[in-house]
What does this fold into?
Amino acid sequence: MAWEPRLIVIACHWCTYAGADLAGSLRYSYPPTVHIVRVPCSGRVEPEFIAEALMRGADGVFVGGCHFGDCHYKEGNYKAIRRFKLLKKALTDLGVEPDRVQLEWISGSEGKKFAEAMTAFDARIRELGPNPMKGGA
Amino acid sequence: MSKPKLAYYLAGGCGGCDIAVVDLSETLIDVALAVDIVFWAPTVADAKYKDLEAMPDGSIDVGLISGNVRNSEHEHIAHVLRNKCKVLIAFGICATNGGIKGLVNLHTTEELLDKAYINTFSTDNPNKDLPQTSMVLDGKYELTLPSLMYARPLDQVVKVDYYIGGCPPHYEHVKKAFTALLSGQLPPPGSWITMGKAVCEVCGRNPVLQGKPKKFATTVKRTIDGAPTEDGCLLEEGYLCLGPVTQGDCGSKCPAANVPCRGCGGPIPGVKDYSLRAISAIASMLDNEELIEQIPDPVHLFYRYTLPSSFPYKRLKS
It folds into this structure.
């Protein structure tokens, strides 16, 4: 069987998850390789979560949160971007393709943006190929 | 009752952990009298591998291994000690997480040999000779050397019962650990022998302990950018101190001497991947995301002692 990417999308409950919901209601299509995990806030996403997903066989991890100023918990997304930027910098230096992990702000009204972001992410991961960290227990 | 038997092996380490044991000074005499040291190689006792291999399985009560597993000899002795010892302890950060020498995993063996034996200014090696795993001397004596491997913490090779962090472990902590061992007051197998508090909780610079609010860091500084204040939090001043995620069994000695914590103590309880949690903790302490760009080398900062046990090297190299 041909390789199909497995993408984990960690979506914040208040914005990106609502955006995904809207994408469904509006009948926008996006790739079936996407698996959404809902979290209360993008500020809840520890770098360990992203690493765990990649170690257990995800080919890409996408974190979605609210736009600046929209965070339901006021500053969760500011925390998320600081952690994410530092993680990405370290992973890039360690030889992990930087595009395997992405962060984007998608609000509850941006169903179209969600579908487009997922399509673009899927295409990019297909270019990168399977995750080399995959395999084993 | 016969004395408990103790074995100690220094694998891919520098011997600093051995010195930490010797630093027990008077307490060491009590410890040495209370236990029967059956094997301590290659530093303290004159012990041979064949004598260790001849001992019955499970005949040694406690085995300590310091240093990471870096070559075939380390791997072999680690397996032997696991079979001979009832309790096996990874002693010091190299054995628990790979240590500073675990950073070799950033390079290939060829690169490292080239640097060590050929391309250094002070090296005189016109024939470009490299160490070989075996050779025959005078046509009859076969000499061998262990073969190099990627650095691994001990628990990626054999099952480990307890972990003790530190580079090296502070002697007060070693004292507590030995006391716990001799009295049998040990935590459940698989855990770290630690008081369970972070460096910050025992740090005299911690503003929270002084009843002051904690502030974000508005700059990023390196230790070469001048000395910190007398008693201010190093993180607030912009020195990237890993105290929040590191075990404080050392008693916060480095911050007391104006040096930010580098994380040799090992992860505080509940942390699965030290380096990633350190990234998370430090990023959360910064005032804005532009400061991230000012951190010149996150790998050598956050992975300094834990590269082989952290993502992604845990997966790539194991």
Summary: The mean pLDDT of chain A is 92. The domain at 7-128 of chain A is CATH 3.40.50 (Rossmann fold).
